[in-house]
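To: structure desk
From: M.T.
Subject: fold request, one chain
Message: Could you run this one when you get a chance? Sequence is below, nothing fancy, just the single chain.
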Amino acid sequence: MKVSFFLKSRPLKDGRKNVGLQFTFSREIQVQKLTGIKVYPKLWDRAEARVNKEHIGYEEINRTLAEFKHRIEVANIKYETKRIGTEQVIAEVLKRNDISSVENYINTAIKDDLSNDQTYFSYLNWWKGLKKLVGKSNKPMKIEELMIENFYVRALKRGNELVKNQELSSRSYANYISVCQKVLNHAYDNRNIFEPYKIKDKYRTTDVYRLSREKKIIEPVNVFNAIKEVNSLQQWQSVALWLLSFSLRGFYYSDIVALTDEKLHNKKGEKTPKNLFSEMYIDTMRAKSNINIFTKIPRPVLRLLRMIKFTFVYTQIDREHNGKTILSPINDRIGIVQYDVTTSGNFHNQLWKLFQRKSRKLGLDMLNARKTFNNIGERLDISNDTREILLGHLGKRTIHQHYNNYKLPEVINRVDKAHIDILERFKTIELIQILTNKLRELIEAKNLPKWLLIQSGVHKVGREYKVLVGMKDFDTSKGKEYNKPEWATIEPKFKKYFKADKSKEKGYWADEETWLDEKNRIKKAVAKNLKDNVWFKEALRQEKELKEAKVISIKNAV
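Reply: Done. C-alpha cells follow.
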C-alpha cells in the first residue's frame, strides 16, 4: 500500500489548487480523495509535501498536513498487519478533527475513535445536559473553556440545586462532568490542546446525593388500561415490548436486539440442541452494565416473544440496514431483529424511537419496566443481593460475593423463584393472555394476516405455505362440537421468509422422538389428557395430510 500527496491539475479562481491523496493498494485498486487543503502551486514543496514559509497560514497548513502523514503511517501499519482493509484505510486517513467547539469535537474526533455508537450518543447527550445545566444550551463552547475552574464552580452550585429539588440525579451530574474530562484527555492526547487539565475531585459529584430521579412505578392495571387503548399494531408492539422487558427482568431495547439462539442454554448453563419441552435460559451480557445475566424464559413469556417476532416480520419485512434485512431468521427461536448495535447507533435509535413514543403515550416508559420489576421484588421482601442478580445491575461487593457463582444450582433456584414470584405478583401471565386477545381483535378489525398468531412450523400444502394459528369450534352434521385446527396461508410477499423454516425437518427437535414415550416424564404427566382430547385426535387425523404432529405442544403456551 502507498499513499501520496498530489495537486489537482485544475486551479481554482484564486490560483490555488486542491491537495489530494492517491491511495494505491494494487495496480487495479487506486483511489483519489481530496484533503480539503488548498495551496498555491509555486509555494508547494512536492518532495516534502508541505508549503514554504511564504505561504499564507503556512503553520496551520503544515500542521494539518503533518496530521495526515501521521494517520497515513498508522493506517499503513494496521493495513500491513491485516487489522483493517482498504475502505478502513481511507476512512482512517481522512478523518478530520473539528475543534471549533466541544460539541463539534465530540461529533468528529471522539466519535471516530469510539467503537461503540451508543457510547458516542451518551457523550453527546451528557454534554447537552451540562450545557443546559449551566445555561448555555444555545451557545457553542470551546475546549479551552473547560480548563477554567470557575466553570465547574458554577456547574456544581447549579447541580446541587437541581438534585435537591429532585430535578436531576447525582449520577447524571457525575456523567456531565465526566464527559468534560474525556474531551480534555482526548484533546491533549491528540495534540489539540498543549497542557493537560484534571478536573478537581470536589467538582465531580454533588454535595447533595440522590442516585436517580423518581421513575413512575407501573401497576398491572396500568398495563391493562394501556392494552385497552391499543388500536393499531404498532401500539400493540410497543406495549408488548414493555411487558417483554419486564418479564425478562428489565431488558432494554439493546438487550432485546442481542437476543439469539446462540445465547440459549439449559439450567446447567450448557448449550443444548433445540427442544420442544426443556427449560430455556438466556445467558447474555447486559448492554448497559456489561454484566452477565442468566435468566429463565417461562413458556408464556416465550409465547409473547414469538408474537412480537412475527409482528416484526409483518411490519419490517422490507427494512434493511447496510444492505441486509434486519429480521432475525425464522429458525431463531428468540431473535427478533439482528444488527450490530455498537456500530449502528443512529439506525438503532430511529428504529426504537417510534415504539418508545407510542408506549409513553399509553403511560408506559421502557425505563420504568426495570424499575417496576425491582419495586415488585422489594414488595415481596426479596433480598437486595437477589434483586441485583435478577437485574444484572451489580455493585462490586455483589459481583465478588455472588455473581462469580451465578450459575450455581442454589443461586439459580433462588433467582428463578424470585423471578416467577415477581411475574405472578404482577399478573404477567394474565396480561400476556389479554395482549394475545387484543392481537386477535386487531387482526379481525384491521384485516391483518392471521399468521401473526403462528403456533406451529410451516407446512407446504401444494404450492401454498400454511401455519397453525389456533383451534376453533366445529359443528358436525351430527351436532357434536369439537376443536378443529385453524390454518393461515402465507401471502407471496412473506413466502421467502417462512420457506426457510426447518422445524418440520426430521431431527430438528432433539426431543420429538421421545416426548410421547412411556419413559418420558412429560408424557407421564400429560399423556392421558392429550389422548382424551378430541383436538389431539383431530391433529393425528390431519397428520397424514398436512404433517402437523409437531404443533400440538403449543396449544396451552399462554
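Reply (cont.): The radius of gyration is 30 Å. Let me know if you need anything else for the meeting.
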